[in-house]
Design goal:
Helix content is 34%, strand content 13%. By secondary structure, the chain is of the alpha/beta class. The strands form four sheets. A seven-stranded mixed sheet has the order 3-2-1-4-7-6-10, sandwiched between helices. A hairpin with a 5-residue loop joins β12 and β13 (233-235). It starts with a helix and ends in a 12-residue tail after the last helix. The relative contact order is 0.12.
């Protein structure tokens, strides 16, 4: 590949400073197989930190030209914010490059990206499904996860500079800036769920069934990892492993691959274990002081922690606040709004979300709630109770309940 050809495409990722070891592991692998620097967009406040520019090109999100950047950074948490800007960044890159490939920071490259670039010679948009064979109906939740979170995993996408590619990105970007919330109960799953309906609008969108793309814990039931005699990783002894997506990687237990529950958990073959161990070594090798930095958009100007509740409440009232306001100013309109509505934690303790794995820790609380719900059912009757339960789902999205907040 000539230098000129090498410059016709860009590969980028997005992450905050805490995710740098993952992004740098990806950058190392890209350099190894493509002799190309990864473009790492830092979704964090600019600060004075040492960044290894020998591995990657670093661009702060504050330098990209996103309109209403700070409003986005305030209404979205880090996952929502970092995913919301992916299509916008792609549009900016396509002003310079002919092709753009996005990889999540927790992916790692194991082969040349030539097959993806070849796809882009024929199609303007390339996506991958989470998996290509239906789950066994006896498996817990079967295919419900794909219904909730989207058909395609947007830890990868590839786009060409074409009318349809640009139209797709503009459509997607507009929706991400408005509705990149993680609210599966309302059909929203950050940037990802939107793309489930993209094939309805973009007829040349290509869904790749190359099983060497985007291998991850959610599709291991259909993809066996092996190493051939030359040391090349293969999928099902047929497809070269192009990149692996180490989503929710369990660094304390790399042999389990992911903290998430999945069909093949605990059944890893020796070659998959070797892959996992090598990724853990890459993370350890790329740990930096910068990765210990707290997420800059998690705090008001006086150090008050911005809770998820405050973010959603802000989204509910932001259009009523003065034009050009700085939402992070603790003495500004948002700071006053937060205090008036008791939306500030007494101590700046970071939020930690509960998951299904935490249910066992709260048996007494669930018992109390269930007793209370049975009492409400008895008072309301079954029909009104059903409407009451639906109302609770609606109220779970604070941004949609404007009457809850005082300005």
């Amino acid at each position: 590949m000539t230098i000129l050809e090498n410059e016709k495409y860009a590969v980028f990722t997005v992450c905050n400073l805490a995710y740098l070891p993952k992004a740098l592991a990806l950058a190392e692998s890209l350099l190894r197989y493509e002799q190309k620097k990864l473009k790492i967009y830092l979704i964090d406040r600019k600060c004075d930190v040492a960044l290894p520019d020998r591995l990657a090109d670093f661009i702060w999100i504050e330098d990209v030209g996103v309109q209403e950047l700070y409003e986005l950074a305030f209404k979205y948490d880090i996952t929502e914010f970092s995913t919301s800007v992916k299509p916008f960044i792609s549009l900016q890159l396509l002003k310079v490059f002919d092709k753009v490939i996005f990889l999540d920071p927790d992916t790692c490259v194991y082969h040349s990206l030539a097959p993806i670039l070849s796809d882009l010679e024929k199609y303007p948009i390339v996506l991958t499904p989470h998996y290509t064979k239906p789950h066994d109906n006896t498996w817990q939740n079967s295919d419900v996860g794909m219904m909730r979170f989207g058909s395609f995993n947007l830890g990868f996408f590839a786009i060409t500079k074409s009318d349809e590619g640009l139209s797709f990105l503009q459509w997607w970007s507009d929706r991400c800036f408005r509705f990149c919330y993680f609210e599966a109960q309302f059909g929203l799953s950050t940037d990802q769920k939107w793309v489930s309906i993209a094939p309805c609008f973009f007829k040349n969108l290509y869904v790749s069934f190359n099983l060497g793309y985007n291998v991850a814990f959610w599709n291991l039931q259909e993809r066996d990892i092996s190493i051939d005699t030359s040391g090349l990783y293969l999928v099902n002894e047929e497809y070269p492993l192009i990149f692996f997506h180490f989503s929710s990687f369990d660094e304390k237990n790399p042999d389990l691959l992911s903290r998430s529950t999945f069909f093949a958990k605990g059944k890893s073959g020796k070659d998959l274990l070797a892959l996992s161990a090598s990724y853990k070594a890459a993370l350890d090798r790329n740990t930096t002081d910068a990765s210990k930095t707290k997420y800059g958009f998690d705090f008001m100007s006086n150090g008050d922690y911005i809770s998820p509740t405050l973010r959603r409440a802000y989204a509910s009232v932001s259009q009523e606040l003065p034009c050009g306001h700085d939402p992070f100013d603790s003495n500004g309109p948002v700071g006053k709004f937060a205090r008036k509505n008791f939306l500030l934690e007494k101590k700046p303790v970071a939020y930690k979300s509960s998951s299904y794995a935490d249910i066992g820790k709260h048996k007494a609380k669930f018992s109390f709630i269930n007793i209370s719900m049975r009492l409400i059912l008895r008072i309301l009757g079954p029909n009104r109770f059903a409407n009451f339960a639906r109302l609770l789902v609606y109220l779970s999205s604070y941004r949609q309940n404007r009457d809850m907040w005082k300005i």
